[in-house]
Amino acid sequence: MKYARLTKEQFEELHQEFINFLATQSITADEWANLKVNKPEVAEMELDVFSDLIWEGVLNKAEYLEHFAPQHMYLFHLDEDNMHAIVVNVKNDEVDITTKEGYNWLRENLMDERVEFLQADKAYTEDKNLDKFKMIEQGASITKGELYQYFYNLIN
């Protein structure tokens, strides 16, 4: 398995897609029920293959990631060849931008000397989607990029 198995809730949301996937494997509903009981290792393998297919599709479409920490905001634009990162550092230990109050402080004090903006490009490894997935595993979220665009326009 390349990524991570989908959660029970995710499988429930993707129930029809999973049925279609099984159909492409020529597995009927009766055969699936039989596999789960008599060959659980094969059923587990099918769940893993389906999970990887879903992740691959999601990661192929992902264009922006965001990750918040108490004093840092990491915003990524996932280009074809590399990731462009904007990092917002808050050099004020009394502010935690993961809270509503801290985020509001940042919004009101963007030009404060305790707010620092950094930009960098990072090349992907040989597996671009795995790079994206690892960032998600570390807490990043896929977004539409509004915050990235806002800060990109602000600092460029």
Automatic annotation (TrEMBL):
Per its UniProt entry, which superkingdom is the organism in? Bacteria
Q: InterPro entries, alphabetically?
A: DUF6495
Any one Pfam family match given in the protein's UniProt record, by short name: DUF6495
Q: What is this protein called?
A: Histidyl-tRNA synthetase
Q: Which organism is it from?
A: Jejuia pallidilutea
The major lineage groups are:
Bacteria, Pseudomonadati, Bacteroidota, Flavobacteriia, Flavobacteriales
